[in-house]
Write a structure and sequence with these properties.
GO terms for molecular function: ATP binding; ATP hydrolysis activity; transmembrane transporter activity. The protein has 238 residues and is of the alpha/beta class. Helices cover 35% and strands 26% of the residues. The chain has 2 domains: 145 residues, P-loop containing nucleotide triphosphate hydrolases (Rossmann fold, 3-Layer(aba) Sandwich), CATH 3.40.50; 69 residues. The protein binds adenosine-5'-triphosphate.
């Protein structure tokens, strides 16, 4: 569903060229959750921005459902982000003084979705993340974990087929973090959405379907080591 093929992205800063993403090939299928680890500055955020059509690659291609995302013009990129992509960030931007339900519903007003229906869809997602009892609560009265779940419901309110998450558990304790990761994986499974997650959270390695590591813009590891019996079989075959 999301296919990055030999993607390169440079930045120029003060006469120097930084190869932020260096020949990365990565696929995330529908229904799959892929986690991306890597030290600070390794290119994780740049990779998400390429997937979101916020940046265009200098070489290689980014495709979603066969469409060349890197070649989108401004309007196409806006439509893609509005209709196909859901973002979950660590830094949560919610409107103060506006209820959880209306925060999530506001995401949909750019679409021609009537307000009543937007509120209904928002309520459904808030129930899905376990906040059905806090629909009328304003963010100031919610805990950090609850606000994170409102942010997830907001990101998912338009039923995106691609979910891009940048450190979605960064501000949560490990139990809440695990809940968020399991929720994202469940949503991938239920809706056939592709989830690409950038994280430092070690729990993601157990929960994600695949784990990759980025270093200096290069993708180091493919799938995790196969289990021991499979490795023995592979050794025997080689
Ligand atoms: N707008 C920019 N201009 C110049 N260099 C940039 C720009 N954005 C990122 N970089 C550089 O590109 C490299 C990759 O940055 P990126 O933000 O993608 O890494 P990251 O893995 O997400 O880091 P972190 O975990 O700290 O968020 C770094 O060397 C960074 O300094």
């Amino acid at each position: 569903m999301l296919e990055l093929d030999r993607v390169v992205k440079h930045y120029r800063s003060g006469g120097e060229v930084v190869r932020a993403v260096d020949d990365v090939t990565l696929t995330v299928a529908g229904g799959e959750m892929v986690a991306l680890y890597g030290p600070s500055g390794s290119g994780k955020t740049t990779l998400l921005q390429l997937a979101a059509a916020l940046l265009t690659p200098d070489a290689g291609s980014v495709r979603f459902d066969g469409r060349d995302v890197g070649a989108f013009g401004g309007d196409e990129a806006d439509d893609y982000r509005r209709l196909d992509v859901g973002f979950v960030f660590q830094e949560i931007e919610l409107w103060r003084g506006v209820s959880a339900q209306e925060n999530a519903a506001l995401k949909l007003v750019a679409d021609p979705v009537p307000w009543k229906q937007a509120r209904k869809q928002a309520a459904r997602w808030l129930e899905r993340v376990g906040l059905g009892h806090k629909l009328d609560e304003v963010p100031e009265h919610l805990s950090g974990g609850e606000r994170q779940r409102v942010a997830i419901a907001t990101a998912l309110a338009n039923e995106p087929r691609l979910i891009l998450a940048d450190e979605p558990t960064g501000s949560l304790d490990s139990r809440r973090g695990r809940d968020v990761l399991e929720l994202l994986r469940a949503i991938a499974r239920e809706r056939g959405a592709a989830v690409l997650l950038v994280t430092h959270d070690p729990q993601a390695a157990e929960i994600a379907d695949r784990v990759h590591t980025l270093r200096d813009g290069m993708l180091l590891s493919e799938a995790p080591e196969p289990p021991l019996p499979a490795r023995r079989a592979l050794d025997a075959a080689s």
